[in-house]
What we know:
By secondary structure, this protein is an alpha/beta fold. Helices cover 31% and strands 24% of the residues. Helix 5 (111-120) links the parallel strand 4 and strand 5.
Amino acid sequence: xxxKISRKEFIARGTAAVAGAMVLPAVEAMTPADKRIKVAxxxxxxxxxxxxxxxSKSPFVELVSTCDIIFDRAKKQAxxxxxxxQYDHIDKLLKGAPxxxxxxxxxxxxxxRLNRQALMAGIHVWSExxxxxxxxxxxxLLDLSRQRGLRIWGAPAVVNSPQFAFMSQAIRxxxxxxxxxxxxxxxxLGPTWSAFFYEQGGGSLPDLGVYNLATLTGxxxxxxxxxxxxxxxxxxxxxxxxxxxxxVAEDNAMVxxxxxxxVLSHVQCGFNYFDPYGHEGEGQDRPTISIWGTHGNMxxxxxxxxxxxxxxxxxxxxxxxxxxxxxxxxxWEMGASVICESLATGKEPLINAExxxxxxxxxxxxxxxxxTGTRIxxxxxxxxxxxx
Length: 388
């Protein structure tokens, strides 16, 4: 006789099995309806306008609740996407209609606190970047999730793009020979809709540089040490929600990473870059990430959160060829939908919590390097290569 368990218990045990914590017991075959993961979205501001449409179209998602401390935003998004429950506080959300996964789209300074509350309530978490405000806090969240048989993941989802996969496989196949160097950049003139980007715990590194840091470590392997310089170029900003504010977090950053084996990479990011493509990045047709080796070089065309091609030139074929031009569409807001599919099917995603934590340690170490003027050794790592 098969052992019947509740749907939530099945999800918790299934994800624990994926993590190697236990073996999933025999259960009856799930119906398509059973495979839909009940999702609550907390934070119904600008980012939710990208996430909710994607989630609403996923066959693995049932949108259950929206939540925002500005209740009108939660109500409007719930009405727009036919979400039955709305709340104005996480405490009410967690005590309300049952759900399996919390999608955290709140201000980045709140991520660690809210993610912990969800885990303590027995809920899986997908968090926008960063998943915590410090590496220590993030590691505690990951440990807590494992202790409770849950999963937590953090954006960005750049490793899911077909362009990332092509670049990773090209490096592993030796197309570039011995890799030596890489550069990545991302910047614009800075968001105006909220002050949190410029307050303590905000900054260009966790908002912008996080994408490039995730991509380069995903392609080249975990960083072993970091040296960096950060600065504030514009000391005062005018924001929609708080008017004029002093800028506390860095709005300009340069980060050098040592990946071992002689491989060095560099990321630059900031809120003071005139960019004709703007915050949305539409129309960007130039390389934003470049990698060099002894046998060839390769460049990602478009931003790593919205790529549309990879240029490759090698010793054997010196004329640059563009690859992965017509691949299946990738969008940066797909991360939570990918996680819902993983929870429903048991398929382990490429997105990895340890990778997100490693990027968080790099950001923290870059700031420490600026403060001390020294090279900072890193302690974290993650499963590599990401694409096998």
